[in-house]
Design a protein that fits this description.
single chain, 6 strands, 235 residues, 12 helices, 50% helix, alpha/beta
Length: 235
């Protein structure tokens, strides 16, 4: 009994121990069992959530991306309950929809979201963002993408919820999101929504240096990369 549990605990990797600690701290903080909620706009995460996640796993993340983070951190965290990360930690109603490339380093990604939040709201830590690898249930991917019907996808439901204030596109100096079909789909839906809903602010191109077009941002290299992508874009 006790001896076997002790041996198992000793044989766990550093990552497994860290994930277990994160799970226990989250459940304690929530004061209740994680529960499923409706797909789409109700499954956002706050800037504070993102920073907590980054800090907790900083020594593992380093320059790694969502391609590493989703299977090695997010899925083990949510495995027991088979929920999205947002549902596990306590989901928030979205303020902004995030369009991004999974190959962006997670630290760059979080810094970009944080800078955007500071530009739009003084209480930036509470702003909530719909982020696919955290808001989608990675255990039910087929359902999240609508079983092939994009109108039933969680992406579409979040963006078209009537609650979304705008789209944030996370960019690096290669503007790689504009090479991804899902990102182009999100840009198209954003463009349509901009012309249908006067309250929707449209798309903002963002980097870890700030929001492009804002006086405080130093985004020259990304601006030039974005211009080259747009000139050569074929949809």
């Amino acid at each position: 009994g006790f001896y076997l549990r002790a041996r198992v605990a000793q044989s766990r990797t550093r990552m497994e121990k860290r994930i277990s600690l994160f799970q226990s701290k989250t459940v304690e903080k929530r004061q209740g069992r994680p529960a499923a909620c409706q797909r789409g706009a109700s499954r956002a995460v706050s800037v504070d959530d993102l920073n907590d996640l980054k800090s907790f796993f900083a020594d593992f993340i380093k320059d790694r991306t969502a391609y590493y983070f989703a299977p090695n951190v997010i899925m083990p965290i949510t495995q027991k309950h088979r929920l999205s990360f947002a549902e596990f930690i306590g989901p928030k109603p979205l303020d902004f929809f995030v369009s991004h490339f999974w190959g962006t380093p997670f630290a760059h990604f979080v810094a970009t979201i944080e800078n955007h939040a500071k530009e739009v709201d003084d209480s930036s830590g509470a702003l909530a963002y719909w982020i696919c690898f955290l808001s989608n249930n990675q255990w039910e991917v087929a359902e999240e993408i609508g079983h092939g019907d994009w109108r039933e996808s969680s992406f579409y439901k979040a963006l078209r919820s009537g609650q979304c204030r705008g789209t944030v596109m996370v960019l690096d100096d290669k503007a790689l999101p504009l090479t991804r079909s899902w990102c182009l789909f999100e840009v198209l839906q954003t463009y349509r929504l901009t012309h249908e809903d006067a309250k929707f602010s449209g798309i903002q191109f963002c980097t870890k240096e700030g929001v492009m077009g804002h006086a405080s941002a130093q985004c020259y290299d990304v601006t030039m990369s974005l211009a080259r992508r747009l000139v050569s874009l074929s949809v």
